[in-house]
Amino acid sequence: MRTAEAICTKRGARLTDIRRRVLTSVWSSHAPIGAYDILAGLNADSGKIAPMAVYRALDFLMEHGLVHRLASLNAFIGCALADERHTAHFLICRACKSATEMDGAAVTRAVKKTLTAHGFIPEIEIIEIQGLCAHCSDQDVRRP
Ligand SMILES: [Zn+2]
Ligand SMILES: [Zn+2]
Description:
The longest helix has 14 residues, at 105-118. The chain has a three-stranded mixed β-sheet, with no helix packed on it. It folds into two domains: 2-78, Arc Repressor Mutant, subunit A (Orthogonal Bundle), CATH 1.10.10; 89-137, 2-Layer Sandwich (Dna Ligase, domain 1). With 144 residues, the protein is of the alpha+beta class. It contains six helices and five strands, in the order ααααββββαβα. The chain binds zinc ion (2 copies).
């Protein structure tokens, strides 16, 4: 949270109360969390927050790299590397629902090279791999 504040201050952005609370609920969830669940959690704490306020807070947090959206799950996850601009690549476990942000530098380089080769200008880049994490693949959860 202090990192988040430092990043916002550095960029001249304001971590308002609602943004802070949305960020906290994303971080305190052990798995990626959907906007609806964030809203439900906040409302359970202190009642009546408009859904739009949560969506706007999420937009702000994504814009500043503090959270990422997992397209395949339509859910959000906090970013531990928020201080550096990067494209997020995720490993998503279907058994325990964890999502791990890969160190994507090599992937990013390979994608960039391919894009250049095709003269393609990227607008949305999503790399999400679903499967079983190391912990779950040790257990008997192989069958979907
Ligand atoms: Zn990240
Ligand atoms: Zn797992």
